[in-house]
Design brief:
Blueprint: H1 2-8, E1 22-27, H2 34-39, E2 44-48, H3 50-54, H4 62-76, E3 81-84, H5 111-117, H6 119-132, E4 137-142, H7 148-167, E5 175-182, H8 191-195, E6 200-203, H9 205-212, H10 231-247, E7 251-253, H11 261-269, E8 274-277, H12 282-290, H13 294-305, H14 313-322
Parallel strand pairs: 1-2, 1-8, 2-3, 3-4, 4-5, 5-6, 6-7
Helix pairs in contact: 1-12, 4-6, 5-6, 6-7, 11-12
Bound molecules: phosphoenolpyruvate and magnesium ion (MG).
């Protein structure tokens, strides 16, 4: 199969009935970047900036951050890179940032919450990103957004830094696109307001599922207990697609779901046209896409979504079998 996947690399990522699907990569370190061209990806859909912080014994300086980001942008060449601002806290702790004891770290002081409380941290990172993307496009998204006001504050920080660099005669990106992740269920009821403000959205289904199902993603007793192909998450994801389409905002999903061919198939069926995944998932997901009649799937799946049932998994597997979709 490895050989088969390698041969798929240069084929366009297009379904059997001619619909183009954007396949993006999740990355976090320089070593991941060799994979961008290898895997035939359309870009980096999620660059997890916290990894540099996690492998470092002290806070990475602005210079070090800038160098990493620049190398990432260089390695991607013409392809877009979506950086995610620091997603620290929860299951990703840093020894040199004291968070104090937390009873429920997943629900605690983390990600954009920490960044807005410690703006110097975020400002440094933003400055490093603006420098690194000078003369090019910068795409940046914020993790764990819970209310729209957090996006406003983060966007103001970016704008202030941009103005600051301009005033001091630095070259800055020719375009700055700002987005957020959809990882906290509260955002599902603020989609209209959010869509009016952001340049793009990306669903973090790992966290969104954890919070929807109240099931700790790191606890093996409960992590796999509830099905990501059940009506509840699929309906929630469908409302995200509808809101993004209505507002004309580009949408991606970058959780692990995107890398499982059966789940990726379901995502396309409910309307996603861009998904971001680990490099190793690209081959299997592409094989699924090339063998899929997406219109047929969509015509069947969307009405099914409204029907009461525990999970759509078996029916999705049956659809794939009956229509020769490679899973
Ligand atoms: C997610 O939550 O789905 C996600 C992509 O972010 P992370 O796995 O880094 O929390
Ligand atoms: Mg997450």
């Amino acid at each position: 199969r490895q050989e088969q996947y390698r041969q798929l690399r240069d084929r366009p990522s297009r379904t059997k009935d001619g619909q183009d699907i954007k396949l993006l990569l999740n990355a976090g370190l320089l070593v991941d970047l060799a994979q961008v061209s290898d895997a035939g990806a359309a870009g980096i859909g999620l660059f997890r900036t916290e990894l540099q912080f996690m492998v470092s014994a002290t806070f990475p300086r602005m210079r070090d951050q800038r160098e990493l980001y620049r190398s990432v942008i260089d390695a991607a060449g013409e392809l877009p890179v979506t950086f995610r601002s620091l997603d620290i806290g929860g299951d990703k702790m840093l020894p040199y940032i004291a968070t104090g004891h937390e009873e429920n770290p997943a629900l605690g002081w983390r990600a954009i919450r920490m960044a807005l409380d410690r703006p110097a941290l975020l400002r440094t990172q933003i400055r490093a990103l603006l420098h690194a993307a000078a003369g090019r496009q910068l795409r940046l998204m914020f993790p764990m957004l819970t209310e729209v006001a957090e996006f406003d504050r983060a966007r103001d920080l970016v704008e202030n830094e941009r103005q600051h660099l301009l005033r001091h005669g630095h070259e800055i990106p020719h375009e700055v696109l700002l987005g957020t992740m959809i990882e906290v269920p509260s955002v599902l009821w603020q989609l209209d307001e959010l869509v009016a403000k952001v340049d793009f959205l990306s669903v973090g289904s790992n966290d969104l599922l954890q919070f929807m199902y109240a099931a700790d993603r790191t606890n093996s007793r409960v992590a796999g207990r509830f099905d990501e192909l059940a009506p509840a998450p699929l309906r929630a994801l469908r409302t995200v697609v509808e809101a993004a389409d209505l507002g004309g905002v580009p949408l991606t999903l970058c959780g692990e779901m995107a890398g499982r061919p059966i789940s990726a198939m379901a995502l396309l069926g409910i309307g996603f046209r861009a998904i971001s995944m680990a490099p190793s998932a690209m081959g299997p997901v592409k094989a699924m896409i090339l063998s899929l009649d997406l219109q047929k799937l969509q015509d069947w799946l969307l009405p099914e979504l409204a029907m009461p049932r525990q999970s759509l998994r078996e029916d999705l597997v049956a659809f794939a079998r009956d229509h020769d979709v490679q899973l």
